[in-house]
Write a structure and sequence with these properties.
- By secondary structure, the protein is of the alpha+beta class.
- The protein has 2 helices and 5 strands, in the order E-H-E-E-H-E-E.
- The protein is globular and about 35 Å long.
Length: 91
């Protein structure tokens, strides 16, 4: 299976609106591995790993986020997830 791992940096009104919880729920729904965490500058950082099809769906979701969020910008870069990492965690 071809696995893609991306690091997503999401900015806008993305803290205090359930963004991490909803990201975890969507990632689990899509069977994506990785993590999501708030950053000190008010942005959210997420590592998403899955098949190209799963990643495409998650990228689309991250560009909008949950109700209440206002996503101004999302950038993606290639990354790796540590070997053996399971599930999708809120950090």
């Amino acid at each position: 299976m071809n696995t893609v791992c991306l690091l997503a940096s999401i900015s806008g009104r993305v803290q205090g609106v359930g963004f991490r919880y909803c990201t975890q729920r969507e990632a689990r729904r899509l069977s994506i591995r990785g993590w999501v965490e708030n950053q000190p500058d008010g942005s959210v950082l997420a590592c998403i790993c899955g098949t190209p099809e799963q990643i495409k769906l998650m990228q689309t979701w991250l560009r909008h986020g949950p109700d209440g969020a206002i996503v101004d910008q999302v950038s993606f870069s290639d990354t790796n997830l540590p070997e053996g990492h399971q599930g999708f965690l809120i950090r």
